[in-house]
Amino acid sequence: MKKVWLIGANSDVAKELMLQMDGKYSIVAASRNYCAVKDFIKKKKIRRAVAVELDVCNKDNLESFLFSMQQPDIVIFSQGKLETGSNVGDYLDEMVQCNYVACIRIIEKVWKGMADKGKGCITGITSVAADRGKMSNKLYSSTKAAFSCYLQALMQEGEKTGIQVIDIKPGYIRSKMLISNRKAYKSVLAAEPSEAATSILQKIESGRSGTVYTKKIWRLIMWGLKLMPERIYNKMSL
Ligand SMILES: NC(=O)c1ccc[n+]([C@@H]2O[C@H](COP(=O)([O-])OP(=O)(O)OC[C@H]3O[C@@H](n4cnc5c(N)ncnc54)[C@H](OP(=O)(O)O)[C@@H]3O)[C@@H](O)[C@H]2O)c1
């Protein structure tokens, strides 16, 4: 049975993933809200899943997690920090650490072991916001862009070492992260957490590297936005 590290396991997408992976994978469900994940595993009777405390912004906690856990076959990054208010600068370090730096630290720890075996899988949930910066969430989108760019580079390396690398760009997901943005939450472009989890698992099980847009329409939308000349794009208020 493949061993999975599910980072940010209390996320709505991660919980759906646990339900869909139940019985087929052995899961280390790492979360800063360890008690909630433990209760979820118990309530849903998820087999072969163990809750482990991990706040990725706590460097000591992250180091001890990396030191004590067995090498995984698959790592899935589902943690994310989104702040957009006028005081967003107060969250700069936390957002950079959570959405980018911690992911790189974890990947650096497991990559060599995977490369030695010639197999493994790294899956990051980034965002369509990584494709082109927008004024409404410039800090979040730039942290996701940094991680997405790193994953893109890893895909090249993975091709040579046999490691599968996946970048998930979900668009809007009706999770607790989006709940305060009623317009986006209700949008027809929004996916359910279960839909996002299904698209992640399908891609992992395909064995192929690549970028996945949970709702296919997002690939088209972002393609259009990426091609848009700056003189037009800059006049928009996204
Ligand atoms: N919702 C969207 O529209 C959307 C769109 C694009 C991408 N994404 C990405 O999709 C992924 C899953 O998010 P979601 O939609 O399922 O939202 P979510 O339910 O809010 O999940 C985000 C998770 O990140 C965890 N987290 C935040 N800081 C952390 C830290 N320092 N250490 C460990 N965990 C931490 C949160 O923990 P707690 O449960 O303890 O708060 C939460 O469980 C995230 O990477 C997010 O950025 C979401």
Question: Can you give a write-up of this model?
Answer:
The protein has 238 residues and is of the alpha/beta class. It has one domain: Rossmann fold (3-Layer(aba) Sandwich), CATH 3.40.50. It has 9 helices and 7 strands, in the order βαβαβαβαβαβααβαα. It has helices at 12-21, 34-43, 59-68, 92-117, 138-161, 182-186, 193-206, 217-227, 230-233, and strands at residues 2-7, 25-31, 49-53, 74-77, 121-125, 164-169, 210-213. A 7-stranded parallel sheet has the order 3-2-1-4-5-6-7, sandwiched between helices. The chain starts with a strand and ends in a 5-residue tail after the last helix. The mean pLDDT is 97. Bound molecules: NADP nicotinamide-adenine-dinucleotide phosphate. NADP nicotinamide-adenine-dinucleotide phosphate binds at residues 8, 10-13, 31-33, 54-57, 78-81, 98, 125, 127, 170, 172-173, 175-178, 193.
Give the key terms.
238 residues, alpha/beta, Rossmann fold, seven-stranded parallel beta sheet, 9 helices, 7 strands, 16% strand, globular, binds NADP nicotinamide-adenine-dinucleotide phosphate
